[in-house]
Fold:
Amino acid sequence: MSAKDPSGKVIHLSSRLGRREHRIGGKAEKKSKSNARVIAITSGKGGVGKTSIVANLGYAFTRLGQKVLILDADLGLGNLDVLLGLAPRYNLSHVIAGEKSIKDILVTGPGGMKILPASSGIQELTQLTREQKIQVLTQLDLLIDEVDVLFIDTAAGISSNVMDFNATAQEIVVVVSPEPTSITDAYALMKVLSMKYAEKGCKLLVNMTTRPDEGREVFRQLHLVTDKFLDISIEYLGCILHDDRVTRGVKSQKIVSQLFPEASASRCFKDIARRISAMPPANLPKGGSNLFWKHLVQNNFV
Structure:
C-alpha cells in the first residue's frame, strides 16, 4: 500500500519509487524531429477556467480534423479527467514511479482526443526533481509524433513545475479573467517568463467576459504594462463570453462545446481554434532533435 501523511489525505510517491525494480522508459533516447504543435495553457491565478478552456479547445481542434493530445500537467491536483467524466485507472504518477509507460495511461476523451491524466493528492509531484522532469519529457517523446497538437494544461501560478512546462512548449497561452487580481497575477506570470525564462512572446485569452470589448480592454491594460516594463510581447487571441451553460456542463461532467454546440461560449471556442490553426506555429524545433530533447539539452538536464 502507498504511504500516507499523518492526516491520511496526501499520498507520498516515495514509497512507490523505493519499491520499483526498474524505470519504464527511464533511459533517454534521441528521436527524430516532430511536427506536432505544442501549446501550453497557463494562468497566474486559479479559478479562471483554464482547464475548461483546454478541454473545449482540444475538442474544437478535433472538429477541425486534428489529432489532439492533452497533458494534465497540474501534477498534484489534476482534475481534467473529472471535468470530462473519465475514470482513468492509471495516471502520470505511475509513469514517474516507473510502474507504467506513458502509453499505458492514455485515455480517450470527447471527439477522440487523447488525455494523459495527472494524479491528485500526491504532494511530491507538485515539485518534480530533475530526474522526474527528464522522465516525463522523455516519455512524452514516445507520443509526440502521433499527434498534430499537444495541449499542456499547467497548474496555476509561478512554481518551477508550471514554468518548466511553459518553457517546454512552442507557444504559451495565458488565460486571464477580467478580475483585477487575475490581471495582476497574469502580469506576474509573464514577468517571470520574461525575466527568468527569456520568453519573448505569449498569447492572451480572456475568459468569462460579459462582452467582446471587455476582453480587448483587459488586453489593453496588460499590453501597456508589459510593453513598458517587460521584454515580452503579447498577442490577443480572443475572449470566451460568460455562459451559464459552461457551468451546467461542468456539473454534468460534459464540456459545453459537446453538450451545447450552439452556445455562445462554444462558438467562441470554435473561433479561437480556427484562429490558432491559421497562425504559423512558433518556435518549431530545429535540426534533427525532438522538441523535448531540445528543451532538456538547453536547460542542462542531460
The first strand starts at residue 37 and ends at 43.
